[in-house]
Structure formats: structure tokens, C-alpha cells
Write a structure and sequence with these properties.
heterotetramer, A mainly alpha (647), B mainly alpha (100), C mainly alpha (343), D mainly alpha (173), B: 100 residues, mainly alpha, Helix Hairpins, 78% helix, elongated, D: 173 residues, globular
Chain lengths: 647, 100, 343, 173
């Protein structure tokens, strides 16, 4: 039985069941319903994968299945169907989304077992799966946009899931959710404008039509550039790139599985997916592609530097996510669309693993997130420690682990296209290694700094949480094998995705990807390995060795460190540049425009009406006979007019 | 045969008398009667034109006007009675319930 | 010109006969009353009191004409005329005979054979209430006013029954002309037989319309002194008095015309003898009409001295809740019969 | 003959119409109105509208005006003051404007003539009108009947004696 056409139905059914019956099912029942729903979707995804792979193997270039569900909008010259597009790109995405999603669902059963609102949580999670699948599977920009907004909504709902708690002393969870939503709106605004431009220029929002039209009759350069930049704006919002990344660290207010699922593994990669999907449009405007690369590169190093100084276990991972997303954009910008997607996949594995591991730690630590109060946990949480270590090795890019291959592919592409960004990438790789091992050392090594009452309750998480960790750990190790560099073997993923990026070959400058020579490949791999090891050594010497000494967390640091610790004060800058002027403007609108101008106008018009009423009152005097008089007057006038007219 | 023009002028004068009554008299009853006067003037016009056109429809409409006038009289007089019960007068100048 | 003269002559004749009948009806009433009450009645003026009406008339003329203080003089004076006029006017459309050969032609024994005779009767009949109301109100006397209001209410109420009672007759004859109705009864059974319910209703309503007992609420001596003519005396009172009797005569004439075959006398008028002598036939018709009317008038008087008076609420209840529905049902039944025939 | 009668009736109608609106006493007004109706009925007869004439008398004079008289008597209305043209500014205005405009209208109207050549000698017999009423105008006729019923019910409800204990708010009104 083919489940893939129903892939959207399962999460929908799951969320409906949970919405109605969730509270009666109990946390296990409710979680089981949600998990099974996602599992069925995952099975459908696997089926779709097999079919698509079969089509790819046939090699006639049209490796795609379209499931048309129904005609959605048909207005004038505009039509949009709700139809699902299964091609290699979307299949890879749904495999990751449903696969990782399933593991996280299972994990959530354990993590949320003590929460009173588990049903609502699983409803949101399923809703998220639904929206994400819609986003990835839609065969036109409109469906993609619906999914796009849907995941944004779920993100907002889940960040503010514990709406009654405070995230930091200054910010409530609800406020964090609002921040995410509003920052995303900025990006969505760009996205929408891009959609309008696409429609006005290509008269369709369907991917095929748009790309075919764009490839053969590109619009004016300015328009194409605008479309590319506006789409990029949308992507930076959703994927937390410069300058719209500020919401992601605050999104850590949500439950940790949410951080793993949405804010690390899946939703934030929507931007990457969208850019990869629109590769034709970007290929037609190389300048924009350069911008993409630079945005990615700068974001990567920017976030990596911040991550080096953070003390909240989830914050470190959040900035790490931003940084890794930057990598992906770097890859996209260097025309390594396949590489970007490859990094999406590997990153989904190890970042989900990291977050879930962090969640396991937090769970064990009774909701303590500050690594300054951890240390030496490897004895108490052996499984968590082991998996976390694997993930760290993977993200740090040590050879053999998944992260190594995907990062290497991106860096190779950058090397051939934007050497400067390659340098940035290598430095980032080193920084990544550094902050991850710093996190490792502070959390799992050294002496325990755990508060006694928390230490008493410290114990390994239940199997329902650790089994997903193990599976993800396995994937983190072997995940890279699907994309081996040419010198080592076949690039399975690249071959699979090739039909998607077929169109690129017809565009000047994007012919067959020029492969680096084997020696250069080896050299590059070596350099990144060295960078990773360098980061590890730096962490070893600067953190692990001095870890227990006084002053490690002291405030007396140099200015740059404090700047990093304060996340470059981007939030403050935004506050100063945007939020405060805006609120000043709003205040101006309130005090001056509204109260003085509008209210006055309203009052004046009211006065006018009143004066008019006073005037009319002279006639409406309540006396029947005066009414009758005016009637007769009118009648006589009318008659006179008629008579005069006639003769 | 008499001049139908004169019948029309008679109707007009009757209507004017009725109008004057409606406008000038203070007693609701007399105003009501003046309205009947106006209705009758209209009836006369209808009958004259019915005669001129050789069509009975005018007279049929007259009939309907009379029937409606009867209904109107019943309701109108009931209103006057109800009004009188409250106010002990039927003076339109002092009838100002519409005035707040 | 001859036509006008003939018409004037007929008017004169009818007026004279009616007024004479009125005069002697008063005598008749007193006589019948007396005999019903085992008395002799007036018998001093002339043989069997035959000159009594003349004496009464003279007495009225010489009485003081009193107008109460605060009365509306003009209306007070007009009221008796208003009371009498409708009754006399109604006589104009009643066929009191067929035709008489006169002045070298046939003369219809009817003053004005209107095509809307029945409507005319009702239109004029509805005016008779004005005399009572005006008189009662103009007297500036509360008894008179009450009497007037009651008279008005009663007459309006019973006029509806009166109208409903004869609708089947109109349905049968298909004409509003009274002579047509009489002619119809010459060829068919009298409506009295065909329409017993209608006849009954009409008679009862006629009693009420003429303010005769048992419906003489407007006068009602015990409660209202003398009702609307409490403040009347002399010839003005005589006006009301004569008006009442004239109304009685009109009512009797209508009953005869509408229900009792009018001037027709079955069988006898079909004799060959009368076919040869048209004048005799005409005279026979007139005589028949007068005789029937006399019987009717006697009935009026008989009822007056036999039945007690209704209370006001009983009267209204009877009118609206009994007679009116009965009249409607009568129309319905007759309509169904007609429908059956036509199908 | 007919012309003479017409002017007689016209004069009667106009004179009594004038009386209706100038009498102080409402009873007098009502009686003059009845007279006015008689005049009109006469004119109807002159135009061979017999049925209407009869209905005019029966309905207007016989029913509606009796109702008026009833009400006047029931309410024991005192004779009202005639309009005091001299002391009411607004009424003076009414009269002036109405008369001026009415005069203009009448003047204009007198200049026009209706084509009286086409006198149809149509007679408004009961049968002919009944034919119209029950064939072409059956629905309006039925609706009128319904209207009368509604009017009766409405009148009864409205003029009904109010509940023995009126609420305070009703009293205030």
C-alpha cells in the first residue's frame, strides 16, 4: 500500500485525535498517537524515496512524482493546486523531517512525561510536521508559503509553550515567541514580495513553470535580482541568518525537543531548502548568489564567535545552529546546492542529537541549563555522554564523522568559487571545534559543580529518551557515507539529487561542477582536520586544563570577550535602531496623530453632525402638522415644476 | 353635460380645503376629517377620469380607497381614543410625544 | 313632462299614504295593545276612537316647544327631520304595485326603479341613525346622550346582519333592483320559504333597526327616561314619533318586498280574469302589497306588547355573536347550494 | 338640468367642506362632512357612477362618520379654539405659503383643459364593478378584506380599556 500520497493525512489525523482526546489518552497514549502518525508518514517517505530512486535510476531526467490533491485556488489567470511534488530534493527533506521528527516524538514522550500540557504539546508537534511536510512537498510557491507560515506559527506556539514561565529575567517565554514571530514576519514580508514579483513576471507560482519561464525568458536583471534578494530575505528570517538571526537563541525558551526538532533539525533548514529549490533563479543572478555566500559565511563565523562565550548549554547549541546554517548558505552561495542539502541532512542528525543530549542533561539536572553548574557528568550520564561526544566529533568535523564530509564539500565549493569565504569557513570550523569541546569539557569532564540537591536526583534518562539518542548517534557517524568526496568514493546523495539540479547545466557558469584535483581535495581535507584538531587543542588547553581554577567564569575579561559574551550586542543595536524608534513612532502616532489629529477630526465631524442635527431639529419639532406642512410644500413645489415644465 | 374641467377644479378646491384643515386645525379629529376630505377629492378626480377614459378601473380604485379609508378610520380613531385616555385632550399642538 | 308629473303624483300619493298610515298606526298600536291587555283602548274621539290621531296631532302642534339650556339649537331642531327623512326616502324605491294603465300608458307603481335599489335602501337606512345621535347629543342631557350612543351602536351592529340576510337573495336574483327581486318571487317560491333563516334574521334585525321592542334600548324608559328624545316636545317630538312609525312602515314594506313576494298574490293573479283586466290586476297588486304590509305591521305591534326588553349587553351579544355568524353561515350554505346547482 | 344639478352639488360640497374646517364644534364639522359626502355622491350619480354613490353614502356617511360622531361623543370633546391666525407666527406662514402656492397652482391649472370630448357615457353599475372586482382585482379585493380585519383587531386592541393597574412608567408618559 502506498502511503506517500497520504503523508499529510497522518499528522493531521494525529493532531485531531490529540486535540479531541489527548487529555484522556495520558502522556504515553497521546505521545504514542503522535509518534505513530509521524512513523506512518516516515514510512510513506521511505516509499516515496524508493519510487523516486527508481525513477532516478531510470535516468530519463524526469525523476518526479506529483500527487495532485485538489484544485485549491482558481481565480482569473491565477491558479494554484494543492499538489505534492516528490522529487529527490523533497524526498530527502521529508526523510529527514519525518525520520528525525519521529525520533524526537518518541524522545518527547519521556521528556514531557511530567508536563501537564502534554496533549497540547503533541498537537503542536503534529501540526508542525504537517506544516513542514506541506512546505517541503508543495509544488508551487503558494503551498510552500502556507507551510512556511504554518511552521512559523508552530514555532511561535512551541517557543511560548510554557507561556507562564520566564525565559530570562527580562524576557518571558511568550515574549520570546513573539520575538521569533515578529522577526520572522520581516523575512516573510520579503518572501511575499518575492512571490508577487514572481507572479507578475512569470504569471505562475508553480515551480516548473516559473523555472522554465525564468530559464528561457529571464525578466530584467533588476527584477531577477530583486526576486533573489527578497527570497533571500525570507530565507534569512526563517533560517536565522544575518541580520535576522536574533530570534533563534531566544527560541530556546521552548521545550528542548522542540529546540531539537524545529530550531535545529528541520524548520530552520526551510530557508536552505527554499534557496536550493529556487536554484535556477539564483543561478540566473550570480551576484545574488554571491550575496548568499557572504551572508552564510559571515553568519557562520559571527555566530561561532558568540558560541565560544556562552554559558547556557542550549544557547551554545543555538548559536552553533546559526553558525551551521551559515555553512549551508555558504554552500548554496557557492553553487554547491547539493552540498548545502547534504549538510542539512548531516546537521539534522548531529544537531538533533546534541539538543536531545542537552535535553537529557537538562532533564537529569532538573531543568538546570547553566554549564557553569555542571561538570563531571560523564560518570552519571554515560549514555548521554557517549552520544553527545559522537555528536561533538561530528559537528567539529573530525574525519570519518558525518559532519566532516558535508562541511568538506561546502568548503571545497567555497575554495573554488570564493577563496576568501573558504578561509572564513576554515576559521569557523576551528571555532566550532573549540566551542563544542569547551561545552563537552565543562559539562561532562572535570569536577562536578552541581548543586547538591540536584546532584542527588541526577540519573540517566529512561530508554524512551536514550534509544533515540543511540539511533541518532549511529546516524551521525555513518550519515556522511552518503556523500563521500570524489577521491574517496561515490557521492550517493549528489547522484540522487542530480536530476533536480539538471536545469543548472543550461545556465552559463554552472556547467558541470568542476572537480578539484585529488591533491587539492586531500589538502583541503587536511586543512579542515587540522582546524578541527586545533580547536580541540585550544579547548583542551584553555578550558579543560584551567577548568577547575578560580577565575574561569570571572567577569574581568577584555572588551572583546565581553562583546562576544553579549552576543555582539546585536539585540541592543536592534533595540536602539529599530525597536525604540518604532515605539517612539508608535507613541507619536498615538499621542499626536491619533489624539490630536484623528480625535480632533472625529470630534469636529461629531460637532458638525451635532450642529446639523440641531439645525434639523428645527424641522423635526415633533409636531405632526409641521411635518404635514413640509409635505404639502414639497408637493406643491413638485406640481409647480411639473406644470411649468409642461406648459 | 357639465364641464368635467369644473369637476376637476372642484376636486382641487376640495383637496385644498382638506389640506388647509390638516395644517391649521389643532383638534386631531378635525384633522382626521380633513384627511377624509382630501381622500374624497382624490376619489372625485378618479371618478372623473374614469368617466373620461371610459374605463371602470378608476371607480374600482375609488372603491378600494373607500375600503382603506374605513380601515384607516377605525385605526385612526382608536389611536385618538388611546391618546385621549392618556392625555385627556386631542390637541395636536400639545401632542409632542415625539419630542424628547 | 308627463313623466315628471306622473312621478310627482306618485311621490304625493306615497307620501300621503305613508303619513296616513303613520297616523293610524299609532291608533292601531294603542288598540292592539289594549286588546292584548284586555282593554278597549282609545274610543272617545270619534267612532272607535278613529279621530284620535288627529286629536293627537293638534295637541302636538299646540304644545310648548321647549329647548333645554345649553342645547345646540340648530341641531336640536334638525334632528327630528333627520330621523324622519331616511324612512320616507326609502319608500321611493319600493315597488308597491306592478303597473296601472293610466294617461294612455303603463305606469310603474314605483317612484324610482333604481338599478341599485337594495344598496340605496341600505345607504339611506344607515343614515337614520343620524337623527337619533344628533338629537341625543344636541339635547345636552346625559340620558339623551346615552340613548343616542346606544342607538348608534345598535343600529350599526344590526345593519350588518340586515345586509348579510339579504345577500342570498341578491345571489339568487342576480340584481340589486327591487322590482327584479319582486318579479323573481312571482315566478319562484317566496324567499320567506326558500330562505327561512335569512327571513328570520332580517326580521329580527329590522326590529332592532326600528328600535322596536324587544330592542328599544335607545328609549328604555326605566333607565334613560325616554332615551334620545327625552328633551323633545311638541312637533319636534312628533317628528321623532312619526319617524319611528315611518321606519316601521318602511321595514314592513322591505320585508314584504324582499321576502314575501312583494305585490304578488300566488294563483289568484294568474286567473284569466285578471289577464283581461289589467287595471284590476294593478289594483289587486297594490291591495295585496298593502295587505301584506298591514299583516307585517300588526306583527310588529304584536311582538312589542308580548316580549320583554333585552339588556344592552345581551343585545350586543345577540347581534355580534349570534346573528352575525348565522348570517355568514346562511350565505355559505346558500352559496354551496348554488354551487351544487351550477356544477 | 344636469349642469344645474352639478353646480348645486358642487356648491353644496364646497360650502360644507369649508364648514368642516371652520367650525369650532367637532360635531358640527362631522355633520357638515356628511353633507359634503352627499354632495359628492350627487356628483357621482351625475356621472353615472351609481354604485360608488351608494357606497359613498353607505360607507362614508353611514359608517365612517357615525364612527367619528361616536368618538366625539364618547370623548365629550369640547369645542376647540379656532386657529388664531393673528398670534401664531408659524401658522401665519403656513397659511400664507399654502395660499400663495395653492393660488399659483390653481391659476396654472385653470389655464389647462382636460380633453372632455371623449365622454364615454360609461355607467358604474354594480354588476360591471363587481366584474372588475372579482376578476381583475380579486387579489387586491381580498387583501382589502384582510386589511379591514387587521384594522378592526388593531383598533380593538388599541382602544381597549387599559389594565386596571397601569405601571408607574406608563403613568409618567
Amino acid at each position: 500500500m502506498d502511503l506517500y500520497p497520504l503523508i499529510l493525512a497522518f499528522p493531521l489525523i494525529g493532531l485531531l485525535i490529540n486535540a479531541v482526546l489527548g487529555r484522556r489518552l495520558g502522556v504515553r497514549g497521546s505521545g504514542a498517537v503522535a509518534s505513530v502518525a509521524v512513523l506512518l508518514s516516515f514510512v510513506g517517505a521511505i516509499q516515496a524515496f524508493i519510487k523516486v530512486r527508481h525513477l532516478v535510476a531510470l535516468g530519463d531526467g524526469e525523476a518526479r512524482l506529483v500527487v495532485r490533491l485538489w484544485e485549491w485556488i482558481h481565480v482569473g489567470g491565477f491558479s494554484a493546486d494543492l499538489s505534492l511534488l516528490f522529487d529527490p530534493l523533497s524526498v530527502v527533506m521529508i526523510l529527514v523531517v519525518t525520520g528525525v521528527g519521529f525520533l524526537i516524538h518518541v524522545y518527547s514522550i519521556g521528556y514531557m512525561s511530567h508536563d501537564r500540557d502534554y496533549a497540547r504539546f503533541f498537537v503542536y508537534l503534529n501540526l508542525f510536521m504537517l506544516a513542514m511536510l506541506l512546505l517541503v512537498l508543495g509544488d508551487n510557491y503558494l503551498v510552500l508559503f502556507v507551510g512556511w507560515e504554518g511552521v512559523g506559527l508552530c514555532s511561535y506556539l512551541l517557543i511560548g509553550f510554557w507561556y507562564d514561565r520566564m525565559f530570562t529575567t527580562k524576557m518571558s517565554n511568550a515574549a520570546a515567541g513573539k520575538k521569533a514571530f515578529i522577526v520572522n514576519r520581516v523575512g516573510d514580508f520579503g518572501f511575499l514580495l518575492a512571490l508577487f514579483l514572481i507572479f507578475t513576471n512569470f504569471h505562475s507560482l508553480n515551480f516548473d513553470t516559473v523555472f522554465a519561464a525564468a530559464a528561457h525568458h529571464p525578466a530584467a536583471t533588476g527584477v531577477m535580482t530583486a526576486i533573489g534578494l527578497l527570497l533571500l530575505l525570507g530565507a534569512t528570517g526563517k533560517s536565522a541568518q544575518l541580520p535576522l538571526f536574533v530570534w533563534l537563541p531566544d527560541a530556546m525558551a521552548g521545550p528542548t525537543p522542540v529546540s531539537a526538532l524545529i530550531h535545529a533539525a528541520t524548520m530552520v533548514t526551510a530557508g536552505v531548502y527554499m534557496v536550493a529549490r529556487s536554484h535556477i533563479l539564483y543561478a540566473l543572478t550570480p551576484d545574488v548568489l554571491t550575496v548568499v555566500a557572504w551572508v552564510g559565511g559571515l553568519t557562520a563565523i559571527f555566530a561561532a564567535t558568540i558560541a565560544c562565550t556562552q554559558n547556557d548549554i542550549k544557547k551554545v547549541l543555538a548559536y552553533s545552529t546559526v553558525s551551521q546554517l551559515g555553512y549551508m548558505f555558504l554552500g548554496l552561495g557557492c553553487a554547491a546546492f547539493g552540498g548545502g542539502v547534504f549538510h542539512v541532512v548531516t546537521h539534522a542528525f548531529f544537531k538533533a542529537l546534541l539538543f536531545l543530549g542537552a535535553g537529557s542533561v537538562i532533564h537529569a539536572m532538573s531543568d538546570e541549563q547553566d554549564i557553569r553548574r555542571m561538570g563531571g557528568l560523564r560518570h552519571k550520564l554515560p549514555l548521554t555522554f557517549a552520544t553527545f561526544l559522537i555528536a561533538t566529533l561530528a559537528i567539529a568535523g573530525l574525519p570519518g564523522f558525518s559532519g566532516f564530509f558535508s562541511k568538506d564539500e561546502i568548503l571545497a565549493a567555497a575554495f573554488s568559487r570564493q577563496p576568501a569565504l573558504w578561509g572564513l569557513g576554515v576559521v569557523t570550523a576551528g571555532l566550532t571545534s573549540f566551542y563544542m569541546f569547551r561545552l563537552m569539557f565543562l559539562t561532562f569532564f572535570g569536577k562536578s559543580r552541581v548543586e547538591p540537591e540536584r546532584a542527588a536526583k541526577l540519573k540517566e534518562s529512561p530508554p524512551v529518551m536514550t534509544v533515540p539518542l543511540l539511533i541518532l548517534a549511529l546516524l551521525s557517524i555513518v550519515g556522511g557515507l552518503i556523500g563521500l568526496p570524489p577521491v574517496l568514493g561515490r557521492h550517493l546523495l549528489g547522484g540522487f539529487l542530480a536530476p533536480v539540479f539538471e536545469g543548472l547545466h543550461h545556465i552559463e557558469g554552472f556547467g558541470h561542477a568542476e572537480h578539484l584535483s585529488a591533491s587539492k581535495e586531500w589538502l583541503l581535507m587536511g586543512i579542515s582536520t587540522v582546524a578541527a584538531l586545533g580547536g580541540f587543542l585550544l579547548a583542551w588547553t584553555r578550558v579543560h586544563k584551567v577548568g577547575d581554577k578560580e577565575g574561569l567564569f570571572a567577569k574581568s575579561r577584555n572588551g572583546f570577550y565581553r562583546l562576544l559574551e553579549d552576543k555582539y550586542r546585536v539585540d541592543e543595536v536592534y533595540d536602539l535602531l529599530i525597536v525604540r524608534p518604532l515605539s517612539k513612532l508608535a507613541r507619536f502616532c498615538w499621542r499626536v496623530v491619533d489624539e490630536l489629529v484623528i480625535d480632533l477630526a472625529v470630534n469636529f465631524s461629531g460637532l458638525g453632525v451635532r450642529l446639523g442635527g440641531e439645525l434639523m431639529r428645527l424641522f423635526q419639532n415633533g409636531r405632526i402638522q409641521s411635518y404635514a406642512f413640509f409635505m404639502v410644500l414639497g408637493l406643491v413645489m413638485l406640481l409647480i415644476r411639473v406644470l411649468v415644465q409642461q406648459g | 353635460m357639465f364641464d368635467y374641467n369644473h369637476a376637476l377644479i372642484l376636486a382641487f378646491m376640495l383637496f385644498t380645503l382638506g389640506t388647509a384643515g390638516v395644517l391649521l386645525r389643532r383638534s386631531a379629529l378635525v384633522v382626521f376629517m380633513s384627511i377624509e376630505l382630501m381622500l374624497n377629492a382624490v376619489n372625485l378626480v378618479l371618478v372623473v377620469f374614469s368617466r373620461l377614459r371610459g374605463d371602470l378601473d378608476g371607480q374600482v380604485i375609488c372603491f378600494f380607497i373607500m375600503a382603506v379609508a374605513a380601515a384607516e378610520a377605525a385605526v385612526g380613531l382608536a389611536i385618538i381614543i388611546a391618546f385621549f385616555k392618556r392625555k385627556k385632550h386631542v390637541d395636536l399642538d400639545r401632542a409632542s410625544l415625539l419630542r424628547s | 313632462m308627463t313623466g315628471l308629473l306622473i312621478t310627482l303624483g306618485k311621490i304625493l300619493a306615497v307620501f300621503t299614504v305613508t303619513m296616513l298610515t303613520v297616523a293610524y298606526l299609532t291608533l292601531l298600536e294603542r288598540k292592539v295593545c289594549a286588546y292584548i291587555q284586555l282593554r278597549k283602548g282609545p274610543n272617545r274621539v270619534g267612532p272607535w276612537g278613529l279621530f284620535q290621531p288627529i286629536a293627537d296631532g293638534l295637541k302636538f302642534v299646540f304644545k310648548e316647544d321647549f329647548v333645554p339650556a345649553g342645547a345646540n339649537r340648530a341641531l336640536h331642531a334638525v334632528a327630528p327631520v333627520l330621523a324622519m327623512a331616511p324612512a320616507l326616502t326609502t319608500c321611493a324605491v319600493i315597488p308597491f304595485g306592478s303597473t296601472l294603465p293610466m294617461f294612455g300608458g303603463e305606469v310603474n307603481m314605483i317612484i324610482a326603479d333604481l338599478s341599485i335599489g337594495v344598496l340605496f335602501v341600505f345607504a339611506i337606512g344607515s343614515l337614520s341613525v343620524y337623527g337619533l345621535i344628533t338629537g341625543g347629543w344636541a339635547s345636552n342631557n346625559k340620558y339623551a346622550l346615552f340613548g343616542a350612543l346606544r342607538a348608534g351602536a345598535q343600529m350599526i351592529s344590526y345593519e350588518i346582519t340586515l345586509g348579510l340576510a339579504i345577500i342570498p337573495i341578491i345571489m339568487a336574483t342576480g340584481s340589486l333592483r327591487l322590482s327584479d327581486i319582486v318579479a323573481y318571487q312571482g315566478a319562484h317560491p317566496w324567499f320567506m320559504i326558500v330562505q327561512p333563516l335569512g327571513f328570520l334574521l332580517f326580521v329580527v334585525a329590522s326590529f332592532a333597526e326600528t328600535n322596536r321592542l324587544p330592542f328599544d334600548i335607545p328609549e328604555a324608559e326605566p333607565e334613560l327616561v325616554a332615551g334620545y328624545h327625552t328633551e323633545y316636545s311638541s312637533m319636534k317630538f312628533a317628528g321623532f314619533y312619526m319617524g319611528e312609525y315611518a321606519a316601521m312602515i318602511t321595514a314592513a314594506a322591505l320585508i314584504v318586498t324582499l321576502f314575501c313576494g312583494g305585490y304578488h298574490l300566488p294563483w289568484l293573479e294568474n286567473l284569466n280574469f285578471f289577464k283581461e283586466h289589467a287595471t284590476l290586476l294593478g289594483l289587486l297588486h297594490i291591495g295585496t302589497f298593502l295587505a301584506k304590509m298591514g299583516i307585517c305591521l300588526f306583527g310588529f305591534i304584536w311582538v312589542r306588547w308580548s316580549l320583554p326588553r333585552f339588556r344592552y349587553d345581551q343585545l350586543m351579544k345577540l347581534g355580534w355573536k349570534v346573528l352575525l355568524p348565522l348570517g355568514l353561515i346562511n350565505i355559505l350554505i346558500y352559496g354551496l347550494f348554488t354551487l351544487k346547482d351550477s356544477i | 338640468m344636469e349642469t344645474v344639478l352639478f353646480y348645486l352639488f358642487a356648491a353644496l360640497t364646497l360650502a360644507s367642506g369649508l364648514m368642516v374646517i371652520t367650525r369650532r364644534n367637532p360635531v358640527a364639522s362631522a355633520l357638515y362632512l356628511v353633507l359634503c359626502f352627499f354632495g359628492l355622491a350627487g356628483i357621482y350619480v351625475l356621472m353615472d357612477a351609481y354604485f360608488l354613490a351608494a357606497i359613498q353614502i353607505a360607507v362614508y356617511a353611514g359608517a365612517i362618520m357615525v364612527l367619528f360622531l361616536f368618538v366625539i361623543m364618547l370623548l365629550r370633546l369640547e369645542p376647540t379654539e379656532l386657529p388664531s391666525f393673528m398670534n401664531s407666527w408659524s401658522k401665519r406662514l403656513y397659511v400664507a405659503v399654502t395660499l400663495v402656492l395653492g393660488g399659483v397652482f390653481l391659476g396654472l391649472d385653470l389655464m389647462r383643459t382636460v380633453n372632455t370630448g371623449a365622454d364615454s357615457a360609461l355607467t358604474g353599475e354594480a354588476g360591471a364593478i363587481a366584474d372588475r372586482l372579482f376578476n381583475r382585482y380579486l387579489l387586491p379585493f381580498e387583501v382589502t378584506a384582510l386589511l379591514l380585519l387587521v384594522a378592526i383587531v388593531g383598533a380593538v386592541v388599541m382602544a381597549r380599556r387599559e389594565s386596571p393597574k397601569p405601571t408607574a412608567s406608563m403613568e409618567e408618559v
